[in-house]
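ARCHIVE CARD
CATEGORY: sequence design from structure
SOURCE FIELD: tokenized fold
FIELD CONTENT:
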């Protein structure tokens, strides 16, 4: 078993090279990570989350059709000078937000060969330090401090730490699932910490080791790169990060899970995306009041489920 790391994680890796097939046809031209959640791309919330957690160095693993992501995190001098001329300080600040929040770097994943393969592209950037992985379409509410909790657990125990969510046994076949050590669990700020004893990607419901699903936050040791290099394609012909983590467990590296109890949206899923937009807009000071009053009227007029709408 490796001893807890002396160095805390300082770098974040955000894989954004997936094909986004669940959101076609929009994702034919627009990366799903740039779809606006109210007025900011989902990805901006995620970069802000990394910076808030103390990880201001970010590497995005991009792919084909993702040039717009690089443009978004780059300066836009023409737009900036047009807004300056107009004296529109508020919009100018909004434009600067995306470039000021973190130091963003890019690397390409030539072919979308799976999440494990995407993470492997970060090895030169990461070096031999522990690092965080934040999936580019998995939005954690800014009021919940999942990543901070995970970083604290990793600093204490070393090894890998993964975010888990109880999705119910009936839904577990859409996720990576974990087996955990039974017994008393530690709790960090309301989130339970468990010791992971096995992982399997998208198991059939009847074979799943639990109803705890892996969601899009990881804090990983650099040793995962050597494991990923040797990990053969798994489910769906893709190199699975879940399989590499299963190997870490087999080798006796500590793998812990933080069971998330807060708000999370999979913005790569159409229904969850809509929920994220409505919820975050309804809670905002500017758009919230008129949206909430419209929503009340809208909901009151909705026909009962099963009734015809016309
Ligand atoms: P998903 O499975 O959610 O992404 O991968 P996807 O393949 O783009 O989505 P669908 O299912 O086709 O709609 C989780 C994360 O891993 C990245 C994705 O961009 C997403 O952020 N990913 C996935 C890569 O960077 N490379 C890959 O080869 C696969």
């Amino acid at each position: 078993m490796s001893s807890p790391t002396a160095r805390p994680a300082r770098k974040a890796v955000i894989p954004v090279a997936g094909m986004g097939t669940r959101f076609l046809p929009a994702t034919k031209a627009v990366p799903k990570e740039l779809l606006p959640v109210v007025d900011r791309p989902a990805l901006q919330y995620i970069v802000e989350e990394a910076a808030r957690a103390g990880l201001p160095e970010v590497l995005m693993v991009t792919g084909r059709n993702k040039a717009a992501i690089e443009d978004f995190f780059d300066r836009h001098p023409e737009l900036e000078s047009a807004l300056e001329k107009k004296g529109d300080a508020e919009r100018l600040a909004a434009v600067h937000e995306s470039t000021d929040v973190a130091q963003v770097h890019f690397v390409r994943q030539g072919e979308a060969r799976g999440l494990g393969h995407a993470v492997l592209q970060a090895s030169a950037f990461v070096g031999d330090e522990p690092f965080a992985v934040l999936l580019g379409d998995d939005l954690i509410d800014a009021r919940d401090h999942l990543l901070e909790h995970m970083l604290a657990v990793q600093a204490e125990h070393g090894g890998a730490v993964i975010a888990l969510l109880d999705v119910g046994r009936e839904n577990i076949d859409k996720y990576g699932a974990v087996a955990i050590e039974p017994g008393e669990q530690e709790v960090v700020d309301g989130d339970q910490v468990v010791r992971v004893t096995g992982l399997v990607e998208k198991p059939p419901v009847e074979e799943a080791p639990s109803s705890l699903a892996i969601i899009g936050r990881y804090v990983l040791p650099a040793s995962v790169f050597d494991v990923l290099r040797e990990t053969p394609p798994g489910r769906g012909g893709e190199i699975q990060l879940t399989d590499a983590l299963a190997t870490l467990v087999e080798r006796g590296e500590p793998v812990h899970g933080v069971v998330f109890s807060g708000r999370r949206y999979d913005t790569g899923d159409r229904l969850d995306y809509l929920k994220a937009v409505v919820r975050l807009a309804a809670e905002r000071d500017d758009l919230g009041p008129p949206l909430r009053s419209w929503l009340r009227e809208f909901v009151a007029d909705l026909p009962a489920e099963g009734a015809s709408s016309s």
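CARD ANNOTATION: The chain has a mean pLDDT of 90. The longest strand covers residues 191-201.
SHELF: design records, drawer C
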